[in-house]
Amino acid sequence: MPIPTEITPLGVGGAVPTRDRHLSALALRREGRVLLFDCGEGTQFQLLRAGLLGSRLEAVFITHLHGDHLFGLPGLLSTMGLLERSRPLTLIGPKGLEAYLCSVPGASPEGLPYPVHIREWAADTVDATVYETEAFRVRALPLDHRVPCMGYRYEEASRPGRFNVGAARAAGVTPGPDFETLARGGRVRVGSREVSPEGIVGPERRGAVVAYCLDTAPCNGARRLAHRADLLIHDATFGDEDIERAAATHHSTARQAAEIAREAGARRLLLTHFSARYPDPAALAAEARQPFEATDVAEELVTVRVTPQEATA
Amino acid sequence: MPIPTEITPLGVGGAVPTRDRHLSALALRREGRVLLFDCGEGTQFQLLRAGLLGSRLEAVFITHLHGDHLFGLPGLLSTMGLLERSRPLTLIGPKGLEAYLCSVPGASPEGLPYPVHIREWAADTVDATVYETEAFRVRALPLDHRVPCMGYRYEEASRPGRFNVGAARAAGVTPGPDFETLARGGRVRVGSREVSPEGIVGPERRGAVVAYCLDTAPCNGARRLAHRADLLIHDATFGDEDIERAAATHHSTARQAAEIAREAGARRLLLTHFSARYPDPAALAAEARQPFEATDVAEELVTVRVTPQEATA
User: Fold this and answer.
1) Residue B46 is part of which domain span?
2) Regarding beta strands B295-297 and B25-30, do their DSSP bridges make them parallel or antiparallel, or are they unpaired?
3) CA distance A204 to A194
4) Does residue A312 fall inside a structural domain?
């Protein structure tokens, strides 16, 4: 069984918070590593409540320089300094991110007791891998908002195909090191014969893919980010009746988010960034489920598990 | 009966928040007017929960430019803009406050849809009235912290003395306009005699005084701010066992705060700014009550009412 990747929404409100909605932030956890997408005011409190405020946080991805996605960053950096973090932290975001942090008293990377690496993408970036480890990579593609804004696509590394023990034994292979060699794609000798993994080891299995698309109007960038994603997290600021307001402010309706999910062949959709004018986002989910049934409403501190789709070809 | 002034702590944590402690902020409400002292991250959420996020907020007093007292300001300003505030707002704080706000995307006063007046005090200010209305004034005096830091003293205007109806009637004065003239300190004619307010109107009664002293080591500025205050709100970051840490970081222990209250002749003390190392500040209150019995622990969103002491001379 693949280890699920855990998605924890920390703030699901739109630009204006409500009594029970914080501002945009979402944590992704996999095998003890934590990534953060956006960092609205209050994110450090929500990370604390989720048990995720610690040195396992390794990178923060900022979509754009609007306050509701950004203003939690100085406090988070500063608190991690006070908590004596020593592990490096990577910050990824638009041009201007570093200048902003340097202008905030106590949040300048130079004054923090741990290394902060800031990587800024240019507004005209088309498709860039902005973060990469042996286990996953994160790509950035442009969205359609009022200021330069990137969505992110988290792609786990592929895993080896399924190992058919019966087929391996039938080919005369003995359990042990030879099994491992075959599982890694190598050939083994059985007496005078050479046995290849073909027919024993299935096709390589893709890792989980999660797309994070906010703030944005429906756009090709979102479609590409969401292509066959296991989970698409998408801007759903408004409902059908506010479709003109959505267009004017470069946001999406819940139904538009669902259409992107359907067109992109995503498996599941998680709606977020709800305008304060919708006290209950259930109505938004109902609209979204018409074009795309597998839609849920993001709830703060309620974790969603993502497992990659098994290859069906 | 005088109308009580209401004090609502919004964040009682020290520099590092805990699961149930936000960062420094405190609201003062009197007759529909709201003042805010400090504005740590999350203050807009707490104002919302307290029902105080609105245009009645007329001034914000920042003690110093440390993030835990400051990082909520950009989000608060920005949210009030999105809520279509039109009423002017006054911000008072140390030199550097305006440059900070101007460097934050979306929080620059020029870009907000309502007027923002920023008044910066110089680091060498000794005692200044930094805000004044017909109903109250706010003075600033220097505290002892690692960076320039001012405490604030809220002083309500004096009220006229008590009116002795019996004495007025005995002097032959008829209820009505003449009563009002006397109450305001004027003289009236009764036949051929002139009647003065002496003996009819008691001594002028002072308004409520609230002192706000954080962050600070015990110092003369705090003593002066707290002089005969009806309520002293004081830095109580540490307990007795951390007195050296308090000195090193220019903070106070709860007991030191209580000694200031006693020396200044304050009526009541409210402890706040608790270090995360004290999960339960009740122990701090117990230490403080030894020198000063009338000590309470500030609790978030629990309002304390302040009425001025009647003159006893």
Assistant:
1) 5-159+204-306
2) unpaired
3) 21
4) no
Structurally, chain B folds into a number of domains equal to 2
User: What residues of B are in the A interface, CB distance below 8 Å?
Assistant: 15-19, 22-23, 40-42, 44-45, 48-49, 65-68, 70-72, 74-75, 78-79, 82-83, 96, 99-100, 103-107
C-alpha dihedral (B96, B98, B104, B110), degrees to nearest 10: -170
Q: How many residues does chain A have?
A: 313
Q: Same domain for A224 and A295? A: yes
Of B15, B40, B45, the CB nearest to A82: B15
Q: Looking at residues A42-59, what average pLDDT do you find?
A: 96
Q: What share of chain A is helix, strand, coil (3-state, %, to 5)?
A: 25, 30, 45
The predicted-structure confidence for A262-279, as pLDDT tens digits, reads as follows 999 999 999 999 999 999
Q: Are residues B102 and B126 in the same domain?
A: yes
- pTM of this structure: 0.92
Query: How many residues are present in chain B?
Result: 313
> DSSP secondary-structure letter at B198?
T
| Chain A residue with Cα closest to B102 | A103
What would the pLDDT profile of B104-116 be if each residue is shown by its tens digit? 988 899 999 999 9
- Phi then psi dihedrals of residue B153, to 5 deg: -125, 115
**B44 to chain A: which residues are within 8 Å by CB?**
17, 41
Contact yes or no for A105 and B66 at CB 8 A = yes
> Is residue B313 in a domain?
no
Tens digits of residue pLDDT in B35-82: 999 999 999 999 999 999 988 999 999 999 999 999 999 999 999 999
The last residue of a domain, from among B142, B176, B195:
B195
| Cα–Cα distance measured from residue B235 to residue B211, given in angstroms and rounded to the nearest whole number | 11
Residues A23 and A172 in one domain: no
Give the pLDDT of residue A313: 39
Q: Is position B19 within any domain?
A: yes
Q: List the end-to-end C-alpha distance of chain B, in Å, as a whole number.
A: 19
Query: Are B239 and B116 in a shared domain?
Result: yes
In this complex, the residue of A41, A70, A105 whose CB is nearest that of residue B100 is: A105
Q: What is the ipTM of this complex?
A: 0.90
Dihedrals phi, psi of B131, to nearest 5 degrees: -155, 135
Residues A57 and A173 in one domain: no
